[in-house]
Amino acid sequence: MKRVIFSEWALEWVESKRMYIKESTYANYKLAIMNHLIPEFGNLYIDEITRKIIQETISDWSVNGRVDGDGGLSCKTIKDLIIILKMCLRDAGINSSQSFDGHCFMYPHEDNKREVQVLSNEAQDKMIHLILKEMNCERLGYIMSICTGIRLGELCALQWGDIDMGKKLIKVQKTLQRLYIKTNEQCGTTKIIITSPKSRKSIRTIPISVDLYNIMIGYQGDEKDYVLTGTSKYIEPRLYRKHYDKFLKDNHLEYIRFHGLRHTFATRCIEEGADYKIVSELLGHASINLTMNLYVHPQLEQKRQCVDLIRLLE
């Protein structure tokens, strides 16, 4: 078998996958290969890439992995890179002694996980009051995120044809995003795409509450009109996020990322005793474990009640 340089194989491999995977997945694979995998493994032959070399690379990425040179990559990013590398090497047909399937690598521990941002009840009421004070199509999106937990890309792709106002249901079946496709080491191109959501579980139906329905009914448009613009033209997430940040600043509200509105919805549901599985399905999470890890955090009093169940003396 002819020995192959990794850089040549990796580019050939990603192009061979292009017609079988989502365009966003292709863009992510290509970016990972160009920005991280080729710089580390590009000059090696496929059969020269060993567990030891990969483990050393993982350690280096955790400290110096960012393309801009400003620090290391997150543990999740590193794991995603290794998944892509494993697929690439597996398809190259390397011999079984060099198989990297299974849990054979150690990843750096992260002490500085970003906390989930959630509005307090008071801050949520204040924000809703200010939104309703000067309502428009864009601000309708803020309310919808608080009331449904819909993701930003899903919200930007939402058209009135996706909403059944008679049955009070929102059908989430697509997402809008700007892709960056790396073309060479120096540059790339960007494009907007509207495609299916990030996972099968993300395709879902969300009921509309009575309060939200009463607000939405005043903005209902034609089937092809986008909810956030009221026209047949969409607004992309980056611009919408910029408008949202300006709304917070102009109204002297505490800063919370737009995604924090989704977290706020989930947290309120859990606080009110909603079933975890239902909350998970409303959010479009891949598993209930993800929902519980993010939002289910027992308070000290609940923990005290739990340990008090153990009685030593009757």
From TrEMBL:
InterPro entries given in the database record: DNA_brk_join_enz, Integrase-like_cat_sf, Integrase_catalytic, Integrase_recombinase_N, Integrase_SAM-like_N, Tyrosine_recombinase_XerCD
Tyr recombinase domain: residues covered: 114-308
This protein's UniProt keywords: DNA integration, DNA recombination, DNA-binding
GO molecular function terms attached to this record: DNA binding
CDD domains (alphabetical): INT_ICEBs1_C_like (cd01189)
An example Gene Ontology biological process: DNA recombination
Superkingdom of origin organism: Bacteria
Membership in a protein family: Belongs to the 'phage' integrase family.
Job of this protein: Site-specific tyrosine recombinase, which acts by catalyzing the cutting and rejoining of the recombining DNA molecules.
Record protein name field: Integrase-like protein
